[in-house]
Design a protein that fits this description.
Blueprint: H1 3-24, H2 30-54, H3 63-80, H4 85-107, H5 112-132, E1 142-143, H6 163-184, H7 187-197, H8 199-204, H9 209-235, E2 237-238, H10 240-243, H11 246-259, H12 266-284, H13 289-303, H14 309-319
Antiparallel strand pairs: 1-2
């Protein structure tokens, strides 16, 4: 499949999925709508990991930027009185981008396990700071008010997840996914393959491997922060353990392996599967839900080593 055709198919797929989700809103039960919205937020974090994986890198500390995005939105809401979800999203993205720009000078020269563990260390440092800061609620965190959009406030009796918030998350996620797909099909995306395969040859072409990694690191951080903003707006509460703790970062890596890196849709499909498995496992087997998640990942690794998206590639190859 040519690059142009793949980009067009992905664009059409994103548009169709967006329209379908918006049209299904009246038919979705509350739990299903919440699962979809949470999956989109978590999928954005995994989408950032997909970018890093294309560069041959894995981060065990994306909870750092997930937390920065969530806390930036929560702080802007609590201390500045900002309720507009668009402004809160920009605040989270800007905060994470600034931190990633600074930390990027430290991590961009490292590869393999050193890159992964450096990010984990930064994430746990932030967790310790948040857990010990009384003004931020320590380990209990603090609540976030119901968001508005461009001056429009939802019906107070409609609950937190309204069509306005749901539609905002769906549309914003679709635009970001389309943008990332175009980036991966651009020269910077192909530079990532060069970083992964042979940095020396990439330098011979006049491309800075460290500069390319730095750009990818910032992009992944902004995506993680946006996912954190969406999650906090949906839940209405933010805590250090639910955002910056190492298990949260591990969860994102779990989903990245589950989905694979074949397409920008893979993170969202995998995150949805993850949320559904966890939801039903907690309901019917609360003492064994982690084991069921592990079995799910094991089956995917054994039979679909390229992730869930490789199943679509196999079917497409069979049709061809």
């Amino acid at each position: 499949m040519t690059r142009l055709r793949r980009v067009r198919l992905t664009t059409v797929g994103i548009a169709v999925a967006t329209a379908a989700l918006l049209a299904l809103w009246p038919l979705l039960p509350a739990w299903a709508a919440h699962t979809v919205a949470v999956s989109l937020g978590g999928g954005l974090v995994v989408l950032g990991l997909l970018i890093l994986i294309r560069f041959g890198l894995v981060s065990f500390g994306q909870g750092l930027f997930f937390a920065i995005g969530g806390y930036a939105a929560a702080l802007a809401n609590q201390f500045l009185g900002i309720t507009d979800m668009l402004v809160l999203s920009v605040a989270g993205i800007a905060a994470a981008g600034a931190v990633a720009w600074a930390l990027g000078y430290i991590v961009r020269g490292h590869r393999g396990i050193f890159f992964a563990m450096l990010n984990l260390a930064f994430s746990m440092i932030l967790f310790g700071i948040l857990a010990k800061t009384v003004v931020l609620g320590s380990t209990d965190g603090f609540s976030v008010g119901v968001p508005t959009l461009l001056g429009f406030a939802p019906d107070p009796e409609a609950g937190r997840l309204t069509f306005m918030l749901f539609g905002y998350i769906v549309v914003f996620t679709a635009v970001v996914a389309w943008w990332v797909d175009r980036i991966l099909a651009s020269p910077i995306g192909y530079a990532g393959q060069g970083v992964r395969e042979n940095e020396l040859r990439l330098r011979y072409l006049g491309v800075s491997a460290r500069g390319a990694v730095h750009i990818a690191y910032i992009a992944a951080a902004k995506l993680a922060a946006l996912g954190g903003v969406f999650t906090v707006l949906l839940i209405g509460h933010v805590t250090p353990e639910d955002t910056a703790y190492w298990t949260k970062s591990g969860e994102f890596v779990f989903v990245a392996i589950l989905g694979g890196s074949g397409n920008v849709a893979a993170p969202f499909i995998a995150q949805t599967v993850f949320e559904l498995v966890r939801t039903f496992a907690l309901q019917y087997a609360p003492d064994a839900w982690q084991m069921l998640l592990g079995i799910t990942l094991l089956l995917v690794i054994l039979f679909l080593p390229g992730g869930l998206w490789s199943l679509a590639d196999r079917l497409r190859g069979r049709d061809a």
